[in-house]
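ok so I'm stuck.
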Amino acid sequence: MEKTYNPEIIEKKWQEKVDDSIYYFEASSDKPSYVIDTPPPYPTGDFHVGNALNWCYIDFIARYKRMRGYNVMFPQGWDCHGLPTEVKVEEIHSISRHQISTHEFRELCRQLTVKNIEQMKGMMKRLGMSIDWSKEFVTMDEQYKRYTQLSFAKMYRDGLIYQAEHPVNWCPRCETAISFAEVEYEDRNAYLNYILFQKVDGGKDGEHVEIATTRPELLASCVAVAVHPDDDRYKTIVGKELRVPIFDYCVNVYADESVDPTFGTGVVMICTFGDRQDVRWWKLHNLPLKTSIDERGRMTDVASGYAGLTVEECKRKMIDDLNAKGLLKRRESLKQSVGVCWRCKTPIEIISAKQWFVRVQKEEIINAAREINWYPEHFRIRLENWVESMDWDWCISRQRIFSVPIPVWYCKKCGAVKVVAEDEVPVDPLTTSPNSPCINCGGTEFEGEKDVLDTWMDSSLTALWAAGYDLNDSAGIPYEPVELRPQGHDIIRTWAFYSILRAIALTGKIPWRTILINGMVLGEDGYKMSKSRSNTVSPNEVIEKHGADVFRQWAAIGGAVGSDVQFQWKDIVAANKFMQKLWNILRFSMIHLADYGLEESFTKEKEERNLRVVDKWMLTKLNRLILSVTDSMEHFKFDEAMKSIRTFAWNVLADDYIELVKLRLYGRSPSGEEGKQSAKYALYETMRTLSILLAPFIPFFADEMHSYITSAKGENEKSVHEEKWPELEVTQDMINQEAEREGELIADIARAVRNYKSERGIALNAPLGKIEVYTDMESLETEDIENATATKVEVCGGADESKREGDILDVNGTKAVIIK
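replied:
not stuck anymore, here's the structure
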């Protein structure tokens, strides 16, 4: 064995040596199933550090559960569709999606996606992910498209999907509707403009009401004005009319408790539409619709004199015109939270358009969320708050190209909607016609739906897909929720929400029993990683310098599940040092275990009968570690599990145990061959078990360690990942409290004497005169203390140590006197 651990050689060796089939789910297995609803990442080609953290968590669970005897399914999907790919294709090829045919554009998107998937798969494999690649799925493939379109048809026929003219969030740059979850909010500089509206009824000639707004460009869409009913300043204008400046038409004044009388002047314009509150008022008061901004973010003919201008151009011109007419009283700067498109950061508009929607049944979703086990629990509240805040249903239609086509046609004769039949999917309604005539009029000519589905309509089905659920329900087999959904907290309001909604709608059950939430990765500066801050780190950068196992160790120990994790190179360095420490322990162990257990007379029972106290103590500490790590893993406390293993390996095994038994292992102790065999047995069991406990976290090193340990004993060589996790009942029975108490004292005394020598500059192998131990353990085994301290030890029972001449060491209440 080389003196220095070389991750590049060892990780490459085990990547090539381990057969991925050992990780495959076996449909015919009698083992209990443990199905993971793995996130299907968007194939950008960059498997970033945030992805890597989440997948490490998933892999820790998958490897652990396999060793606990579960038939684990750890599939991998790819959420291919969406706007980012379209934008990237346009950028790469210097084209617009409108310049080539839909078919050609989709093919370019497909080719880019395939390339990016291969890049990301390579990083997953390099990180040691035990993925079942036989269960890989790609949402742009025909089989998955069929599944998505079937789900649309089923929900439509169940009355859960409908088409309607309704206000929607709209990105004028991407020219598509977007859902609430795709709207982000940014603080931007704005102006509050105080504009004069002329009183029409009951006011003196030229009398005005002052209204403050940040959006003067929406004056042409003003359909009403509102004040708070308790605001005494404006009680006389409620029910009256005001004249809209510039456009010279009248609107009614309403009293509404939603008005904030402390903002601006306490009078607000109701426009169609400036924000979600406008939509609420528009519905409540049954107001007319005046659309002054179109799908491209330009002013319509409703804004007479401003048509064709962009929103910003219109705002500037409107301010100039109001000022020129003496209708702009003043302007105040302020910070404003602006809703922007998640992709391009363009401020969104709310426009009325004919779209497809999924009904959001809030109570059902909240009740379902409460049936699910959330880790950490408080993230369930985030989902519930999101559901409660929704003002309208989920808009699922998108005016894009690279996504699943909405499987709908419109009869050219009567205009009726015709939804795809189950035997027709997958289908592109723009290139094919339905197999049957219109049920309303018998017409046979149809126009296909141009819009495509929101990409979350694909990915919200991953749990059902992984479980193999038949949407046709032809087999009559009810859906069984999968065990686990692991995901980031940033997509609770999207992926978690939509998945629960869809599972309830399609199966009547929750999608998974447990949801595990991971946090984000922060840069060394404590801020979210971003290229603009220059604080990003690639997993590949860590792997190149220190290996995948070091990265995985950082992922495990970096922080509690659910909390954000700060990346710091010092943590990587610490993980690397631990790898070298483990390697040193393994190298030392193999000196003594190279031929262990090969002699004909060897039996495990025989070895256990003749164990020395320190060896019993070591095995008891090992069994307590097993219980501790198992409990941590069951509760997804990977940081606690890995810290426990680190502490045990470094402090208990290396610093205490090996130092105590070193002479016995070399056969230079009074107990001779019997003491040597006892130490070898304990060391072998410890190292073999440690390789198993390490396997979920550092799979490459664990395989290397396990191969050395087991091949030394002549066992059939197999991967550590095919081993069973230690049985807890057996582990509990093997805790020897008496030996633990005595062994702890022995280790403490040896450590105290070592510190005593170090503080006085005495060589650690230099003998002292004598060590007297004053304890009620009269049968205390002293051999290992003497070996570790190179000093004779005498047990003095309950005698009074204070009368002895020497340095008294207090070892956790037990006195050890060093006689010089």
